[in-house]
TrEMBL record:
CDD domains: NAT_SF. It comes from Plastoroseomonas arctica. PROSITE patterns: GNAT (PS51186). This is GNAT family N-acetyltransferase. Gene3D superfamilies: 3.40.630.30. GO terms for molecular function: acyltransferase activity, transferring groups other than amino-acyl groups.
């Protein structure tokens, strides 16, 4: 999908489950490989996707994106429920690359807005979100997917 300096962002598949397990374990999320593959399949069947950033081995980052319709918006809203970059790979532009790919997927799905759920206790997330075009809206960060005039 997207690449930058050898880093590729693509849709995750069942073969990525083991690498994703170690990445999620860094964040305190323990999932078995078979369960991970099952959850990936469930997200693909629903209105959503899981994208990973890889270079030469296990994933360096992950973004999980879902979209849903509301009566208050002209099109669906894309919601990022997980954005995670490995501790050793932070400050290399991987988070920005994942957000760019997520926004492209959301636009392709007809979404009009991108939201990101803020994890409590992450002191770096608000600064990162503001630097990438999001505005704080309660416990979420919101960014329009429409071109700004």
């Amino acid at each position: 999908m997207t690449s930058r300096f050898g880093m590729e962002v693509r849709a995750a598949n069942a073969g990525d489950a083991a690498g994703m397990m170690s990445l999620l374990a860094e964040a305190g999320i323990a999932i078995e490989a078979t369960e991970m593959a099952s959850r990936l399949a469930a997200i693909r069947r629903a209105a959503g996707t899981v994208l990973i950033a890889t270079q030469w081995g296990p994933p360096s980052g992950i973004v999980i994106l879902h979209w849903y319709s509301t009566l208050g918006e002209a099109g669906p809203i894309a919601l990022i429920t997980t954005l995670l970059v490995a501790l050793d790979d932070r400050r290399r532009g991987i988070g920005r690359l994942l957000l760019k790919a997520a926004a492209q997927v959301a636009r392709s799905a007809g979404c009009v807005r991108l939201e990101l759920i803020a994890a409590s206790g992450d002191a770096t997330l608000p600064e990162f979100c503001c630097a990438t075009g999001f505005a704080e809206a309660g416990s979420r960060f919101v960014r329009s997917l429409r071109k700004q005039a």
